[in-house]
Amino acid sequence: MIYMLLGTGFEETEAVAPLDLLRRAGIEVATVGINGKTVTGSHGIPIQADLELGEMELTKMDGIILPGGLKGVASIRASREAMDAIAFAWENGKLTAAICAGPTVLADLGIPDGKNATCYPGCEAQMGSARMAENAAAVTDGNLITGTSAGCAIPFGLALIAALKGQEAADAIARQIVIR
Fold first, then answer.
1. Catalytic pick from 100, 119, 123, 152?
2. Is 100 designated active site?
3. N or C: where does the chain have the smaller number of CB atoms within 10 Å of the terminal CB?
4. Tens digits of per-residue pLDDT, 149-158?
């Protein structure tokens, strides 16, 4: 099970586009509301999460994904339970992924230190000792996947699929959605 954390004010495109691609690829993903099941994104779009934070089964987790959005990131940071779930994923060798401002939450936990990563332009100073990749839509370094922005949500989603099911599966989804 892959868990996608949704905090109030999350960036909708960075959540919905990768979620859609992952589910197209047959990957089991549950959205998790930090402060309840109905979570409103940064542009006023409410999303009905599959689970509330306390319903996650960490021992069944294959990975965790954090969309960006400054308020969404602040919601995640403010939740000890969410931060503990992220740390659990990383410490147990699970896929740990974030896009936009989301990688800065990972940096709070030291996750990208010494690894290749990307984030929203202007957030690099919050990325600890990560090796920042300029002009990259998404960067994979072992179990860590980071993405740059809402405009990079599709490449980020495809990188997640490649990590979880292989490049062939990611290529099949790219062909299905006719990405150019």
1. 100
2. yes
3. C
4. 999 999 999 9
